[in-house]
Amino acid sequence: MAKKLKNEPALLKEALRIILDDAVKRGIVEFEPTDSHDLKIQYAYRLLVHDKKIAPIPNNLISLPSIKHRLAMWVTHELPADHELLK
After folding, report:
1. Angle at 7 between CA 59 and CA 80, to 5 degrees
2. Quick check: 55 and 27 in contact, CB under 8 A?
3. What is the dihedral of CA 9, 11, 14, 15, to 10 degrees?
4. What is the pTM of this model?
C-alpha cells in the first residue's frame, strides 16, 4: 500500500463530507442513522469511480484501508493548496 498521508484520518473525513453532501444534494442517496461508517466509505468510493473522478482499485487489491487511502488522496486534489489539512 502507498505511503500514509499526513492527516489521513482528517482528509478521509473531509473527503466523505464533500462526496456525501454532493450525493445528497444530487438526490442520489439518503443515509439512515444506522448506516455504518464503513458503508459510507464504500459508497463514496463507488460514487467517485462511477462519476469517473478516480480510477478503480484493482479487485485483488481492494480493501477498506486502500479505499480510505484513495479517498484521502482524492481530496488532496480537491482542496485549495493553502488548506489547513494539506500543511
Report:
1. 95
2. no
3. -110
4. 0.91
Give CATH for domain 34-79. 1.20.120.1930
**The three grid cell numbers given for residue 13, joined into one nine-digit string:** 473525513
pLDDT in tens, 15-55: 999 999 999 999 999 888 899 999 999 999 999 999 999 99
- Asked whether 53 and 74 are in contact (CB, 8 A), the reply is yes
Q: What are the domain boundaries of the chain?
A: 34-79
Q: Which sign, positive or negative, has the C-alpha torsion 48, 21, 64, 6? A: positive
- 55-83 pLDDT, tens digit per residue, is 999 999 999 999 999 999 999 999 999 99
